Amino acid sequence: FEALLDPVADMHFPLLAVARDLWSGFAASLPRGEDLIDRAGALYVAPADADLQRRADRMAAFDPNSEILTPAQARVLSPELHCTRPALFSALDWRLEPKPVLCALHDAFRAEGGYTAPQAVVGWSTGCAKMRTGEFVRADVLVLATGASGFAVNEIAELDLLTPIKGQILWFHGSGPFAGPAVRAPGVYVAPSRGGALAGASMQEGRNDREIEPDIIDNLRARAGALFPGLAQAELT
Questions:
Q1: How far apart are CA 89 and CA 93, in angstroms?
Q2: Which H or E run includes 216?
Q3: Partners of residue 138 on adjacent β-strands
Q4: Taking a C-beta distance cutoff of 8 angstroms, is the pair 66, 88 a contact?
Q5: DSSP per position, 26-53
Q6: How far is CA 89 from CA 48, 92, 93, in A?
Q7: DSSP letter, residue 10
Q8: pLDDT tens for the 237 residues of the chain, in order
Q9: CB distance 215 to 202 below 8 Å
Q10: What is the per-residue pLDDT across 139-196, written as a single tens digit (0 to 9) for each?
């Protein structure tokens, strides 16, 4: 659905599909790894029939098995969904459980000889990283996993191409949906999670602060509540 709804990703469905499929091989190498991948798919609830048909025609190029569902059919997949219009469904959208996956990735990385550095890297030359503490660490490859900000290495030209994007996401701890497809609508998505539904997300280009903005939170809650009325007053974490 990123390839359908995000203009930047529009032409990149083949690449995104390859990246998605690599998770299956990784999960298969872990005990109960398949539990990390949710293949329930995703629904798009359109604001108008013309928009839905346009999206469906475009989605057919990615997923010929995608289909337009009636509101009743959509509620079979997502019983808590408030849906009065047809919705577009694709089974090709997968989700991961973030915390278990991050732990598994960390363990796999270290098993392959990786070293994670909690302190900042301030210098890099082939084969050697300089830490803020003054320590030097031998390394074949440097992976900066700090996002678009937070790194202290200034001489890497590629970093000049990065722009921070601030995203605010709501977690309705203990409130569903806990399973079923992710649901997308203009300006919001609601992703089921075992610990409670997640709703997001703001995309504020050029921002890297962590300030919580009540107006954005209220807007996301209202949009999420329009899809799942039980979230309108649910507790946020």
A1: 9
A2: helix 214-227
A3: 128
A4: yes
A5: HHHTSTTGGGGEE---EEEE-SSHHHHH
A6: 16, 9, 9
A7: T
A8: 989 998 888 889 999 999 999 999 888 888 777 788 999 999 999 999 999 999 999 999 999 999 999 999 999 999 999 999 999 999 999 998 888 888 888 888 999 888 887 777 888 888 888 888 888 989 898 887 766 665 566 666 777 777 888 999 999 999 999 999 999 999 999 999 988 999 999 999 989 888 999 999 999 999 999 999 999 999 887
A9: no
A10: 898 887 766 665 566 666 777 777 888 999 999 999 999 999 999 999 999 999 988 9
Cis, bond preceding 177 (omega within 30 deg of 0): yes
Non-local CB neighbours of 15 within 8 Å, separated by 6+ positions = none
> Using an 8 Å Cβ cutoff, are 1 and 93 in contact?
yes
Q: Which two tokens stand for residue 173?
A: 């701890």
Cβ atoms of 77 and 180 closer than 8 Å = yes
Neighbouring C-alpha atoms within 13 Å toward the C-beta of 58: 17
Tokens of 200: 């997001």
Which residues, 6 or more positions from 50, have their beta carbon under 8 angstroms from its beta carbon? none
Q: Largest alpha-carbon pair distance within the chain?
A: 63
CA proximity to 106, closest of 119, 120, 116: 116
